[in-house]
Amino acid sequence: MKITAFAGGVGGAKFAHGLAQILPPEDLTVIVNTGDDFEHLGLFISPDLDTVCYTLAELANPETGWGRMDETWNTISNIEKLGGPAWFRLGDKDFGTHIERTRRLKEGKTLSQVTQEFCEAWGIKPKVLPMSNAPVRTMVNTDEGELEFQEYFVHRHCEPVVKSFRFDGAEIAEAAPGVIEALEAADAVIFCPSNPWVSIDPILKVVKTITKPVVAISPIIGGKTVKGPAAKMFRELGIEPSAFAVAKHYRNILSGFVLDNEDLNLEKSISQLNIKTLATDTLMKQPTDRARLANDVLHFIRSLQ
Ligand code: GDP
Questions:
Q1: Residues 261, 266, 272, CA angle at the centre, nearest 5°?
Q2: Looking at residues 188-205, what average pLDDT do you find?
Q3: Among the atoms of ligand 1, which is closest to the Cα of residue 221?
Q4: Cβ 39 vs Cβ 48: under 8 Å
Q5: Average pLDDT, stretch 126-134?
Q6: Structural domains in the chain?
Q7: What is the pTM of this model?
């Protein structure tokens, strides 16, 4: 079964790693959000692409889910001592990725070319594609005005109250080479358990239409996020955060929805949206949970066909 998965950072990467453990590499394409990308310290940083690649290459920091394992922090500490901007924590190994990516982009390569080259170097077999090679920038409209995504997310710790989101450049950005082809070749599309507002929506804005069955996995369990601001965002936008709210958010494109066993009480209301459901254990605490959940989701997709 050929799968094209949409992913943000930490939640998306863990599930993509599960899929990568059970699907032949040629049957998996992961399309990654680039709305979080930004330029910082003169470097081009693509946080979600790096999280997905580090995770698939089994190089990711197991505690944070982002960044590299066995990392050291000499460069950023030195920048801090010199009075430079140190709020975006970059480890020494991670710096290497950004320096080399920036160098190749400046040589005229595209983000997809550089991503493909990095994947080869890291031994990543499934295809990992940025959603677009054109800049798309997630902007967060808050009670303190419009903020660039990393300013809101990292520098301001998601404190400003969210009013809406805007994906600057998305209307004219073309999907990266291979994205539309992967969607056409797929038997099904999976939205990983990523933030609907700022990880999956930017990809949808670029991709625009999906003609294949779509299944989403809830990033919200028991009304809470496992990590990150998705539940806070729902609340601030006037929506009670829940797996139901996630299903409703995607209702026009979903064939199936995967919710946690903890949210069994919501299954009926999600079915009433005309969406098939699977309730299972969706928390990926250990690496083995990833493949188990991916297996459950693939069985569910087969049952829909
Ligand atoms: P980010 O760009 O690093 O914020 O990453 P994503 O958007 O891909 O993932 C963030 C979302 O993943 C959050 O809403 C989390 O609740 C969710 N998430 C993280 N780990 C898990 C997990 O083990 N299971 C589920 N169901 N969701 C998870």
A1: 130
A2: 98
A3: 26
A4: no
A5: 98
A6: 3-37+124-136+170-304 (3.40.50.10680)
A7: 0.98
